[in-house]
Amino acid sequence: MCLISYHALHEQFGPVELLDYVQKAAAGFTAIHSSDHFHPWSKRQGENGFTLSWLPVAMQVCSLPFSMVCAPGQRLHPAIVAQALATISLMFPHRLIVELGSGEALNESITG
Questions:
Q1: What's the 3-state SS for the chain?
Q2: Of 17, 77, 99, 104, which residue is the catalytic one?
Q3: Catalytic annotation on 11?
Q4: What is the model's pTM?
């Protein structure tokens, strides 16, 4: 099965606006994807909500499967990320896929 995802760009839109967009995306997309960065990619992108707190709310208002990219280790300890993801997965079984990466200094170096 092919999933066509709406990308919830936290770098570009605020968290409340993104909740509205994911609800509308359910009319034509088959999944929702979200990134998790601290800093936006450029100055034109002035937003960056915290995906791990936004995700359960978005999953409550939209029944599509969700995925997210996350870079534990630089700004969030991997154990904290694992706890957050396990909690979300228990609340929304079989609806969350997570892609783990190493991140980039550009938008993850807030903690040094």
A1: CCCCEEEECCCCCCHHHHHHHHHHHCCCCCEEEEECCCCCCCCCCCCCCCHHHHHHHHHHHCCCCEEEEECCCCCCCHHHHHHHHHHHHHHCCCCEEEEECCCCHHHHHHHC
A2: 104
A3: no
A4: 0.83
Active-site pick, 10, 33, 37, 108: 37
* 112 residues of the chain, pLDDT tens digit each: 788 999 998 888 889 999 999 999 999 999 999 987 765 556 666 667 888 999 999 999 999 999 998 767 677 888 998 999 999 999 999 999 998 776 665 555 566 5
94 catalytic? Reply is: no
Could you give the CA distance from residue 26 to residue 62 in angstroms, rounded to a whole number?
A: 7
